[in-house]
Amino acid sequence: MWLIGVYIAIAAIAFGVTIAIAAAFLFLQWKRKKHTSCKNGDLELQQLSLSVRTTSEKKVSFEGSKLNDDDSLNGPHIDITPYKTTLVETYTIEDLRKATEDFSSTNLIEDSVFHGRLSGKNLAIKRTSMEIISKIEFGLFYDAIHHHPNIIRVLGTSCTTEDPDSFVVFEYSKNGSLKDWLHGGLAMKSQFIASCYCFLTWNQRLKICLDVATALQYMHHIMNPAYVHRNIKSRNVFLDEEFNAKVGNFGMARCVEDLLQDPSSWSKGYLAPEYLQQGVISTNIDIFAFGVILLEILSGQTPVTRANEKGGEEYVCLSQKIKFILQSDNAEELRQWIDSAMGENYSFDAAVKLANLARACVEDDASLRPNAGEIVEKLSRLVEELPQGDNQLASLCESSCKPLVKAAAIAM
């Protein structure tokens, strides 16, 4: 009987130990499974959050928005701060010398900007100072999600203590600047066939207007806080191979010198009255400058012209000219003012609407100017009204622009 009791006790202890080990094993398996489940759940939640955020960004950034009064002041925001990481590259001076054939004059685009090609990629390389580079807000380019298709991207820099010059490397635009096309800039003469008579069609002009307005909508209503470019002008609007417009000098607002001291009357043609008189900086000054670009696109004229052909110091701004023309209520005067390069290949009704929109943008009273969202909405309607599959305009575009693009390809 004593031995039977011992055997029973040993069996009970063995059974208990087995149960305990099995329970511990099951508990560890359950905990591991729960941890994996939570981790996957968090990952799925992050992916869902990213998907929703990206969809929201695309909808607000790249479609014409309908803003109410509150939106016009605050706008829908995407928080792109704080700027933690920048995705700009560091180039060596050897890289840039190789890309530009040792900064050859044949690669000079305009002023201190060179065309370069590195690792099969076209680049625009600007010679500048370390002081300017230190003022560039590289944080605005911190990831691909926030890269807007209508804004020129800063790709990298080259700064060394051994070389007195520093360089900023930008995304390259094959068809130069809007200024080149409207006013025959230096880039047109150096990169393309100078003798070729090329011009922008009405369809292209309207699309360029919408592209620039969309970029402004992003800066003013999507970015948080709102970003004031401060240097919107036709020279800073660039055209890619498909004539999509991109705004340059983004992220360089702090690099803009005091434009009140700029001796160039050309630049002053873009400056809003409140900035000229009081130095006020707001999104409204970008809207004013954009209005001047609309007037350039419509008329083919420069932002300022001399008051008389004999010369002198007096200048007349396009922003003032359009007010006189629209006040006269003379359709023929407006028709004569529109760029003759287009001939009759444009809608006069649409041109009148564009002229009135430009007139609103250059109002002396900043509070009366439309915001970027309202501008995008109006321009979107004009673009939607363009005739689809218009063979005449398509062939005109091909015949007038193709020689320039071909020449640009050869220049590379």
UniProtKB/TrEMBL annotation:
Subcellular location: Cell membrane
InterPro entries per record: Kinase-like_dom_sf (IPR011009), Plant_RLK_LysM (IPR052611), Prot_kinase_dom (IPR000719), Ser-Thr/Tyr_kinase_cat_dom (IPR001245)
Signal peptide extent: none
GO biological process: response to other organism
UniProt keyword terms in alphabetical order: ATP-binding, Cell membrane, Disulfide bond, Membrane, Nucleotide-binding, Signal, Transmembrane, Transmembrane helix
Protein's name in the database: Protein kinase domain-containing protein
Gene Ontology MF term list: ATP binding
Membrane-crossing segments per the record: 6-28
Phosphoprotein found in the keyword field: no
One Pfam family hit: PK_Tyr_Ser-Thr
Its membrane topology: Single-pass membrane protein
Record's GO cellular component terms: plasma membrane
Major localization class: membrane
Domain Protein kinase: 92-382
Domain of life of the organism encoding this protein: Eukaryota
